[in-house]
Amino acid sequence: MSPNGFNARLSAAAQQKTPVRKGAMQRQGYQFRCVCTRSRAMRFNKIDNFDKRATSSASAKAALLEKFRARPDPNDPEFQERQRQRADAAAAKATREAERKAARLAEAARLEAERKAAQAEKARLAQEAEKEARLAALTEKQREMRAKLEAAREARKRTRP
Predict the structure, then answer these.
(1) How large is the average pLDDT for residues 16-32?
(2) Contact, 19 vs 30, CB < 8 A?
(3) How far apart are the first and last CA of the chain?
(4) Cα 100 to chain center, whole Å?
(5) Which of 149, 127, 155 is nearest to 141 (CA)?
């Protein structure tokens, strides 16, 4: 390592007992400690002694138990009314979802029918074009045959005395 590298700064800091930063770590004495949000958050959560920790734990458990006890009775009319309203809302939601699904399926079927109709129309037009082409070719052949026959007839007329 070069004399002006990190190790040189580290040894100088160890002699002077001044912190040297390297990324998120900071050297103080011979221990690295993190200078990130975790250590700051932990500072606020520290409880000084065992008694305070025990009392805060007990109060949290008591609050949880009280929350459980404050739960409404299933036979309570207000509770039953809320449950019925929730069930009605869930049923309405299910019907809306079923309607949307049916509409999606109907739209997909309509698009498929349109696609098939367009495909059938395209095939019909291609068939008509092929038929017209055959008919045009046939008429062209007929014209050629007629022209040959007329030419042959004219040739026979000329050869007769």
Answers:
(1) 50
(2) no
(3) 126
(4) 19
(5) 149
Q: What are phi and psi of 36, to 5 degrees?
A: -105, -170
> What percent of the chain stands above pLDDT 90?
37
Q: Which two tokens stand for residue 28?
A: 């103080």
How far apart CA 153 and CA 161 sit, in angstroms, is 14
Per-residue DSSP letter, 21 = E
- For residue 41, CA distances in Å to 10, 12, 35, 38, 46 come to 28, 31, 11, 5, 9
**Burial label, 2 (beta-carbon count in 10 A; 0-12, 13-18, 19+):** exposed
With 50 as the cut, is the pLDDT of residue 4 above it?
yes
Q: How many CA atoms lie within 13 A of 27 on its CB side?
A: 17
